[in-house]
Design brief:
This protein is mainly alpha-helical. The protein contains 17 helices and two strands. Keywords: Ammonia transport, Cell membrane, Membrane, Transmembrane, Transmembrane helix, Transport.
Length: 446
């Protein structure tokens, strides 16, 4: 009998379909940052609207440049000690071939790079919601540059980089429960513990100035999140990306309904802010878990996240920390819930064969792994972020002055206001308009 011939596995080839899909997903993730800006911008008072928008938009500029220069290399380069990556050929995105494939996948390195860039952009922007009304724009810009370098890039390597300790341990984080949401939420808590409360916290009314803007932002986040989550499988040849897409919708819907139900029972009303916050809580919680749980598991994840996050947002009044727009209550708590529930609801039929306590042999093994990832990222981000905020505060100062905060940070930091009310008025004011315009024209001509 002739000896058996063993054929080498065929190397992956570039897939135009997967490449196009991932480019679309990258664009969807990018639109989440303006969506976040609208979401946060509607939740603050009028005098802080532009500053809130800019705190998200500036991330698209700063993080893009840092990612190109060294961030991609630190996060996804060759592993060093299971802590950080580095590939010198990737500095400045040099020496990367246009058709060079990401190892083990059918998409170019450039496509993977730009997809992950969008994650790097939105993560520090998430932190901004906790700091509304009181942080200097220059200090914020410096903070996110340092934070991305010291915190986000290393944590992304831990969780997703080949050789990262969490990745090798088997911590499941499909699209960013630890690397994005716990990371940002813990950072927000660390910074606000350093910079303190807003003037008038728990005394003055600080209601959202534009709930329609909040709902618009929520809608953009929900829409973009399909790229955020489904795209993280880097293709859909085996159906896991489709499962994540479906579970994203299911968990978000369940969380929104659960938040509203809790709100009605607790406070007697269904609010638009509650609907938007509940949806975001569901999106956060399903982000790490959606590839590991069944659709019924996604409902459970959403319901638990909706109720627990709704309860958590009130803790700032009990403990006295001023988390302006509930970044801790929604992103930190939601990220912890979604990551830990993998240890209970992982079915073994999605992204991996790992099962949770309620499936398979009812082992706690995956739950312990999830705990290790969750609490390591939480502790590191909390401490590192607090140190960075402290150093900036002691050098250039983190906060605007009390007078500037009271008068409005938009005018103090940007010399603009979000809304121009000077033309508002009744019929007399409108009828005077042409005369005033003619007078102004004569002044210019003169």
């Amino acid at each position: 009998m002739a000896p058996a011939i063993t054929l080498a596995a065929e190397a992956p080839k570039l897939s135009a379909a997967n490449t196009g899909f991932m480019l679309i997903c990258s664009a969807l993730v990018l639109i989440m940052t303006p969506g976040l800006a609208f979401f946060y911008g509607g939740m603050v008072r009028v005098k802080s609207t532009l500053n809130m928008l800019m705190m998200s938009f500036i991330s698209m500029g700063i993080i893009t440049i840092l990612w190109v220069l060294y961030g991609f290399s630190l996060a996804f380069g060759t592993d060093h000690g299971s802590i950080i990556g580095w590939t010198s050929d990737w500095v400045g995105l040099s020496n990367i071939g246009l058709t060079e494939l990401w190892p083990g996948y059918t998409i170019p390195v450039f496509v993977f790079m730009v997809f992950q860039l969008m994650f790097a952009i939105i993560t520090p922007a998430l932190i901004s919601g906790a700091l509304a009304d009181r942080v200097k724009f220059t200090a914020w810009s410096l903070f996110i540059a340092l934070w991305a370098t010291v915190v986000y890039f290393p944590v992304a390597h831990w969780v997703w980089g080949t050789g990262g300790w969490a990745f090798d341990l088997g911590v499941i984080d499909f699209a960013g429960g630890t690397a994005v949401h716990i990371n940002a939420g813990a950072a927000a808590l660390g910074v606000i513990l350093v910079i303190g409360k807003r003037v008038g916290f728990k005394k003055d009314p600080m209601r959202p100035h534009s709930l329609p803007l909040v709902m618009l932002g929520c809608g953009l986040l929900w829409f973009g999140w399909f790229g955020f989550n489904a795209g993280s499988w880097l293709g859909n040849d085996d159906g896991v990306g489709a499962l994540m897409f479906v579970n994203t919708q299911i968990a978000t819907a369940a969380a929104m309904l659960a938040w509203l139900a809790y709100e009605k029972i607790r406070h007697g009303a269904f609010t638009t802010l509650g609907a938007a916050s509940g949806a975001v809580a569901g999106l956060v919680a399903i982000t790490p878990s959606g590839g590991a749980v069944s659709p019924l598991g996604a409902i459970a994840v959403g319901v638990i996240a909706g109720v627990v996050c709704a309860m958590a947002v009130g803790l700032k009044y009990k403990f006295g920390y001023d988390d302006s727009l509930d970044v801790v209550g929604v992103h930190l708590v939601g990220g912890v819930i979604g990551s830990l529930l993998i240890g209970f609801f992982a079915s073994g039929k999605g992204q991996s064969t790992a099962t949770g306590v309620f499936y398979g042999d009812h082992s706690f093994d995956q739950l312990w792994k999830q705990c290790a990832g969750v609490f390591a990222v939480l502790a590191y981000s909390l401490v590192a972020s607090a140190i960075l905020a402290f150093l900036i505060d002691k050098t250039i100062g983190m906060r605007v002055t009390e007078d500037e905060e009271i008068a409005g940070i938009d005018q103090a930091e940007h010399a603009e206001t979000a809304y121009d009310f000077s033309g508002a008025g009744g019929g007399a004011a409108r009828s005077a308009g042409p005369a005033l315009a003619d007078a102004e024209t004569k002044k210019v001509d003169a």
